[in-house]
Design a protein that fits this description.
Layout lengths: L7 H10 L27 H14 L4 E7 L3 H17 L2 E8 L8 H9 L4 E5 L2 H15 L4 E4 L12 H4 L3 E4 L7 H14 L7 H21 L7 H12 L2 E4 L4 E3 L11 E6 L2 E7 L1
Parallel strand pairs: 1-2, 1-3, 3-4, 4-5
Antiparallel strand pairs: 5-8, 6-7, 8-9
Helix pairs in contact: 2-3, 8-9
Length: about 280
Amino acid sequence: QNFTDVDDKIINRANEEGVVLIPPSATADDITTEDDYVFRACFKDTLQGGIAAAYVDQQGITRVGTIACSADTYSQGLVDAFALACEERGIEVVEQQSTATMNAQDFTNQFTAMVNADVELVYAVYYYDAVGPFLVTQARAAGVTGTFLGGDGWGSVKDYASAEDLEGSVYCSGYAPGSNDAVKKFEADYEAKYGEAIPNMFAPLGYDAALLLVEGLKAAEAAGLEAGSDDYKQAVIDGIKGINGVEGITGSYAFDEYNNPIKSAAMIKLTGGEEVFTELF
């Protein structure tokens, strides 16, 4: 699975077989419903897009541009959610640009349009390996001086562009590095195990997905049910649905009626070439 979604065949099979599926980073809105076996450890696209718009509103920015891949569910989904939330908040989206692929390498025309539209901020929804070497660098060369705001696919972008070009950029993440003692311990344990620091949010989200499943299994085991039985499977689902305040590495978990976690997003700011957690939003 990836940021965009989980393959429909996997979702359908999970529902048919009664097997709980908890993707760590599948953000597409339509992978969960109120009556299936699919949950998620991350936030969904519309929640993230709305948080991004709220952040822009807090900064007092009123003229924004967006750029996304028109053919990618994750990229376009976030931009659509962001644009709708901006409209509701009275923020004007004055320029909307796109590319045909997520691995585009030429953004010159798109950012010339951004400059001409005099945008204060660009919401750019691509992954770090396109944002760093191409998107941000070409935007600065084209004359874009405003802030960049990215989605959770920006994690590790500091390794792909100059500190100068990225300075002041912000992105929304599912993981807040160093935010509390539990997170710091997880980070230390990860580095001790793998010999490197946690590079992005995927390891913490993967850990939380496993944690959520364990909570469901504990509920089924506590009821003394036969493993693999229909009652056991239902008890696992009910156990996860009933989670309220379980602390993971990426935040405190509770679920809405569509099996989406109700949680905050971490705002990460590029400062001096480093990705620095600033606040939960």
